[in-house]
């Protein structure tokens, strides 16, 4: 592979800097004026804008690099990691989006509180903060892997720029800039696919030379792994804070549902493209580290094309980091800071921005401890899946739900899922299934062993109201 000259590198760096400067100016121009605009954009976002925002949240730097990395060894079947998001958004749009919108809550913990009380709310908030923090650790690592091939941009630089976006703009800024970032990202992925196709000479040479599993629906993956990806991604979408926050920014319950369905459609072609890039990388460069399966193609482009692709990867980083950090900030402020200090709206907005600033840089401390990106990604989805299980049981199987059972189910699911992940998924059982089964088992046994909480009957009346909508 060739190396870029100093002049080539200067051109690429100039393109990236110009993009950063322009989009930051736009971010400041779109700056939110109050807490509601910062958190949910004043419920004024068009459905298509929210759809692109939802899609970009699940196909950010982590998924972009991680899917190609997995395809490097598992084959095109790695596309299931993103196709799972399409299935998840479809189910979310059909069964959950309108219900959450009508509830009037724009945190998943607030929604849980209406069914299970304040203690469950705080536990859900803590679990979501824990999971989303790990998501951003993976985002930073993915970003560095994606752009270090050309620019050697360090984590601190990426953190500074991306943090500016959401600290000053909030959801309103992030949402509209996501349209720009997503367009640039899709152009970059298109260029990568075209370059990979050209270098490989099409699909036929690869089919002849590579093991057959690279082109089957399951590849080197087990059915259990693919199933875990689908279940975990759907569950994560049902409970991820930023998803709730984004659909709450739409103009109506119908728009909330439609944005989810459109996001499902947008995920499909991207999933196939990312899997294809990883397979071509394995065909052409079988000895490279799998983490570089996507950015390795930059070295074969002229400076202008490499600059566009590198800018698209930077855009992907910004989308991922901004949306996740904004979601964490909302949980910290709404569930912990506001109840304790009861600030004025002006103080709340100021504190939110300071907390966002801290949250933008904190993941840097942990990036050296991150294992394989896609594995970390699905572990964080497993943590969020347990929250979805508790929420769905509360909505559709209220007979088995109780405050005590929900609290213990959430705590034990988080501890068990984390332990299972750290132990390397013993017996070949994915930690996703631990997250799925544990809260359900605890709720059922809680119902059998303990009397129903006295206040649960009151909560059922609220539940029936939300379900009817």
CATH topology: Sodium/glucose cotransporter
Number of helices: 19
The CATH superfamily appears as: Sodium/glucose cotransporter
Structural class: mainly alpha
Rounded average pLDDT: 79
Number of strands: 0
Q: The biggest beta sheet, please?
A: none
| End-to-end distance | 58 Å
Q: What gross morphology would you assign? A: globular
What order do the SSEs take from the amino end to the carboxyl end, as H and E? HHHHHHHHHHHHHHHHHHH
Number of separate structural domains: 1
Name of the top-level CATH class: Mainly Alpha
Work out the helicity level.
over 70%
- Residue share in β-strands: under 5%
Output the radius of gyration.
Answer: 22 Å
List the helices and strands and how they pair.
Blueprint: H1 6-29, H2 35-40, H3 47-58, H4 61-74, H5 80-95, H6 97-103, H7 108-116, H8 118-147, H9 155-200, H10 204-209, H11 223-239, H12 241-247, H13 253-284, H14 303-341, H15 345-361, H16 373-396, H17 403-422, H18 431-449, H19 456-468
Helix pairs in contact: 1-9, 1-14, 3-9, 3-12, 3-13, 3-14, 4-8, 4-13, 5-11, 5-13, 6-13, 7-8, 7-16, 8-14, 8-16, 8-17, 9-13, 9-14, 9-15, 11-16, 11-18, 14-15, 16-17, 16-18, 17-18
């Amino acid at each position: 592979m060739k190396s870029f000259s100093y002049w080539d590198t200067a051109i690429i760096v100039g393109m990236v800097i110009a993009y950063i400067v322009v989009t930051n100016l736009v971010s400041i121009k779109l700056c939110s004026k109050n807490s509601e605009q910062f958190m949910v954009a004043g419920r004024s976002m068009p459905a298509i804008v929210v759809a692109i925002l939802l899609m970009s949240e699940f196909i950010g730097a982590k998924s972009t690099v991680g899917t190609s990395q997995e395809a490097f060894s598992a084959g095109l079947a790695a596309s299931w990691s993103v196709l799972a998001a399409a299935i998840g958004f479809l189910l979310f749009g059909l069964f959950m989006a309108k219900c959450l919108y009508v509830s009037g809550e724009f945190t998943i913990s607030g929604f849980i509180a209406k069914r299970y009380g304040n203690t469950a709310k705080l536990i859900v908030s803590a679990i979501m903060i824990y999971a989303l923090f790990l998501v951003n650790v993976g985002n930073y690592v993915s970003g560095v892997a994606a752009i270090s091939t050309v620019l050697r941009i360090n984590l601190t630089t990426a953190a500074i720029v991306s943090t500016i976006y959401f600290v000053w703009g909030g959801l309103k800024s992030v949402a509209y800039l996501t349209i720009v970032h997503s367009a640039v990202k899709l152009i970059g992925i298109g260029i990568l696919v075209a370059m990979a196709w050209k270098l490989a000479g099409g699909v036929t040479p690869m089919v002849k030379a590579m093991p057959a599993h690279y082109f089957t629906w399951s590849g080197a993956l087990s059915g259990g792994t693919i199933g875990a990806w689908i279940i975990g991604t759907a569950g994560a979408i049902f409970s991820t804070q930023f998803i709730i926050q984004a659909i709450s920014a739409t103009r109506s319950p119908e728009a909330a549902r439609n944005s989810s369905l459109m996001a499902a459609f947008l995920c499909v072609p991207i999933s196939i493209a990312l899997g294809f890039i990883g397979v071509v990388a394995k065909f052409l460069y079988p000895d490279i580290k799998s983490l570089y399966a996507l950015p390795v193609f930059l070295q074969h482009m002229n400076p202008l094309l490499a600059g566009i692709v590198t800018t698209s990867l930077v855009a992907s980083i910004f989308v991922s980091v901004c949306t996740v950090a904004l979601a964490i900030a909302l949980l910290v402020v709404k569930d912990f800071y506001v109840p304790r200090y009861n600030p004025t709206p002006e103080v709340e907005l100021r504190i939110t921005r300071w907390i966002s600033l801290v949250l933008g840089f904190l993941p840097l401390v942990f990036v050296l401890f991150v294992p394989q990106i896609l594995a970390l990604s699905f572990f964080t989805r497993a943590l969020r899946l347990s929250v979805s299980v508790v929420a769905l049981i509360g909505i559709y199987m209220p007979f088995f739900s109780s405050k005590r059972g929900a609290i213990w189910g959430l705590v034990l699911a988080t501890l068990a899922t984390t332990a299972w992940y750290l132990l390397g998924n013993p017996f070949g059982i994915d930690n996703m299934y631990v997250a799925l089964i544990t809260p359900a088992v605890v709720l059922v046994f809680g119902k059998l062993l303990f009397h129903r909480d006295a206040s649960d009957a009151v909560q059922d009346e609220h539940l029936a109201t939300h379900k009817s909508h």
